[in-house]
Every structure is written in C-alpha cells, then in structure tokens.
Amino acid sequence: MPTLTASIQSDSFNPGQTAKSVLCLEVGRDRFRFLVQDERRRGCYLEDYTFSSLLTDRPLMDILPDLFRDHPVLAAGPWQEIRIGVNSPSFTLVPQSLFRKEYAGSYLKLMRGSALPAHEFAQAYAHEPEGFLSVFNLEHPLADYFSGAYPLQPLTFIHQTGALIRATADLDRRGLNPHNIYLYFEDEFITIIYRQDHKLRYCNRFGYKNAQDLAYYVLYVLDEQKLGPEAVHVALYGEITPFADTYTELCRFLPNLTFGPIPPGLSLTSEFEELPEHRYLSLYGLGLLVDNAQ
After folding, report:
1. pTM
2. Structural contact between residues 42 and 20, judged by C-beta atoms closer than 8 angstroms
3. Residue 211: helix, strand or coil by DSSP?
4. For the domain 175-259, what is the CATH code?
5. Is the domain covering 3-89+121-166+265-287 a CATH 3.30.420.250 domain?
C-alpha cells in the first residue's frame, strides 16, 4: 500500500455534502495527494501519499484501486467537480490563437522528438486569462480509471505545471515586485516560472542531480531573461527546506530568496496551519481553477 506522509482533516468536511464540494487529485508516478474544498470553497481535507520503489514499477492502475477502495473521501460522491492534476513527463504551452485541437498530438511530438505511444493521448487545458493552452500527455488507462471511479461527474484534467501557472498567477496579482520567479521542487525536478508585470514570460521544468546543477539552471534562466539576481524576487515552493543543500546553494546567488506563502485566493481551514505554507502549491493551484460545474 502507498505510505501516508501527511494528513489534515477538518470537522467542516461533511461526506453528505460532496455534491456541493470539489475534489482535487494530484497523481504522479511515485505519489498521490488530494484536497477537498467544502461548499464554501475552503480546503478542509488533505492527504499525501508516496509509493515505495517496489510500487513505482507497477502501473498506477494497479495501485490506485487499493487506495480508493473504502476510503471515506475518495470513495464518496457524487462531487460537484473533480479536478485531476497529472504529473506526466511531457507538456508544452501553445498560444490560444495558434492552437488547433486536431494538432495537439503534433505539438507534443515536436517537443518530445517522437510520437506518443499508443497507450497515451494529448490532453489540453485552456488558460484563458493567460491566452494559451497547456498540452500534455495522459495515459488512456488512467483517464479511464477516473471516469469509472467517478461516473457521470465533471472531470477536469490539467498538467501539474498548469496548476502551478494558475497558483502563481494568483500569487503574482498581489505582488509589488515587477519581476517574480517561482521555483517548485519535487523529487529531482525543478519547475521555474517567471512573471513580469503579472504576465507569464517563462515556464520550464529541469531535472537535476545536485545543488550545483540546480543553481546553474536557475542562473541560466536569469541570464536568458536578462535579469540581474538583485532585481528579481524568488519564491520557493514544494520539497525544499531551509536545511537543504539546494537552499544553501541558491542563497549564494539570490539575495531576494524567500519561502513562498499560500496563494491569497485560496481559503483553508485552521487545521492547515500545521503544514508549511510553501509545500503544496501545485495541489493548491487545483483549488484555484474556475468552477466548471456551476
């Protein structure tokens, strides 16, 4: 079974009110987490699971049923809406004016250098206020599993990076600095998002093996965007602590480095004060998507 690493439960969660509540799920090769927003759109229930190295060699569809079966939240419903963040390896951003649905697979092929395998397809999510769509790979069995687990309920699929874009848009609209970089850490990957005057200017994800590699990628993006380290505010999110080598290395080069707060547009119950504010930005980004089932 997956290992539960974090759990927040509020008395405000009412299993009988799921028809007025939103279920946010985030799934990747080696982890699964979820957030429930009650009828007042307050985050009131969170669980975070990791999969052991033995489980990561198995398909997700072999793991998730054991987790969902008889779970007091995941097996509940029907829900007003279910939002599913997918941490898949391929994604790209396409301007809205250039996007054609029939070419979605071609956009990913151009980015990957190869066509999607037969068990995957290209899924798109429209970031309408930003003027572009995110296109990403999604496995047919995974999409079919969620459709079967939540039949006749509104499902919204979005890439993890798309959820981060939504979360940083909410963070940035109240920021005073014209140049803001958001760094999101997970496993041995970092997602770098740069916003200038509240507009997305850069978004990419890098794999790294050590703190020096990480610093190189961050400084490379600063140089590419013609930004001096002293002119940009950098907010840290995800799997990073003040005691990490990565944090120590970044402090050498970035004078305006902080751990980021919870997005101001997200409401959480008091029980969430137990969690580091910077930890779950991608999951919180799912909670900031516009309701599609109202």
Report:
1. 0.95
2. no
3. helix
4. 3.30.420.260
5. yes
